[in-house]
Design goal:
Elements lengths: L2 H13 L3 H18 L6 E3 L13 H9 L3 E8 L4 E7 L4 E4 L5 E4 L11 E5 L2 E2 L5 E2 L5 H6 L7 E5 L20 E3 L4 E3 L2
Parallel strand pairs: 1-2, 1-6, 6-9, 9-10
Antiparallel strand pairs: 2-3, 4-5, 7-8, 10-11
């Protein structure tokens, strides 16, 4: 199946989830993530959820990370260059929504990505060796190509691994782990 067909298939699966089901899956994913990884005093980059796409609600994770002294980073998107600029999130951070419905931090301090310990990556589908498919613009592949080798790349998925290998391109960067509602997949 092509990347575009897989995108449509998994976005449709996600669209079929009720808000209640999505919230329940988000809670299970957050429980899996927080119980399987050492997060205290880490610098963690997370995506902010696009509600209309039914993404995992990472806002529910932010308070937990503040409680264990994690530094939280998120991004603003440049849709001309297809790049991300990264900012520290605090308890006082306000958010605005860009034209694609992506929440973005306002009045935040820009930060380097070189010392990020963990990156949480949005995706539509992943396979059992750590390949992933997102929305197809390459934002995260560009971002992941610039982080330190020690940075842990973790996908968050509503669904379990696709049974067949996904089609990949040379520039695609795989995951180290993926967290689903039922388990944590390791690809290292």
């Amino acid at each position: 199946m092509s990347k575009n067909n897989l995108r449509v298939k998994y976005q449709n699966k996600r669209n079929l989830l009720s808000e209640n089901e999505n919230n329940k899956l988000t809670e299970l994913i957050i429980e899996q993530f927080t119980s399987h990884f050492e997060l205290e005093n880490k610098k963690i980059h997370l995506f902010l959820p696009i509600k209309k796409k039914g993404e995992i609600n990472t806002f529910k994770l932010i308070e937990r990370l503040f409680a264990i002294n994690s530094t939280i980073v998120s991004s603003k998107s440049n849709f001309i260059k297809h790049t991300l600029t990264h900012f520290i999130i605090t308890k006082d951070t306000k958010y605005s929504y860009n034209t694609f419905g992506i929440p973005e931090p306002e009045n935040s301090i820009e930060t380097s990505i070189k010392d990020i310990d963990i990156i949480l990556i949005p995706l539509l589908v992943f396979d059992y060796i750590g390949n992933r498919i997102g929305y197809g613009k390459g934002f995260y592949d560009r971002f992941l190509s610039e982080v330190s080798d020690s940075c842990i790349k973790i996908g968050l998925s509503h669904f379990e691994a696709n049974e067949e290998l996904l089609p990949i391109d040379k520039h695609d960067i795989g995951l180290d782990f993926c967290v689903s509602p039922m388990r944590v997949y390791s690809f290292t």
